[in-house]
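Supplementary Note 3. Input sequence used for the single-chain structure prediction.
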Amino acid sequence: MTHSFLALAFQEPQSDLPMWIIIAVVLVLLFFVVLIIGVGLTIFFVARKRSKARKLQANSARVMSSGPGPSSYEGMPPPEIPQAAVVFDAPPPAFETPAPLPEPNVASVPEGAFDPADSGAAEFDPSRTVAITREKTVAITYGSIKFTSGVLAGQQFDVKPEGSYIGRESSLSQIVVSDPRISKRHLWIGVRDSVVKIVDQDSRNGTFINDPKSERVTEATLNSGDTVILGESDVARFEYEA
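The predicted structure, written as discrete structure tokens, is reproduced below.
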């Protein structure tokens, strides 16, 4: 019996409130605590800011009141202004005209008193003169061609370094051979690599050297005395002379 009473006395009381209500109450209390602290800090900083502003206003008013006023200068004599010193220029010194210099006595030199030989002048020696002559410029020539047959037989033409075309069309050739068996632009003759050459211009009847029965020439170097034949039927010939 005694044991049962002791158990009832020391038994922990059970709470009838649920757990979420307790948590809500604690959170509300914490919210109010934080709110009170925030309001207190705000009031503190505002009061501090106002006190600083009042101190600044008091200091500025004190500085302005301590400055000298207009009454401070009463009774003081005005400052003296120094007068500029007047400098008088001294009179310029009198200018004296210099006396004229005496004229030099120029003695006349007698004739024959001056000898060019005594002055060290060398006599002119024509044997020691050097004649400067201008050398003549010799034009470089590359020979000529002379037609021995055809419509231009007997005519001679110089070989130009830039070359000339031979053909039957005057608008395409510088040397015109008026024959229908000759192409409009049959042959080119000129200088390449410092030698005289001929180049066939894809003519219809061809170009030959020394023999019309030889192979057609597309490009060849001419030697002095060579005969160039235009066309297989030997339409025209010309000889090259260096």
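The chain has a mean pLDDT of 79. Residues 113 and 119 are 12 Å apart (CA to CA).
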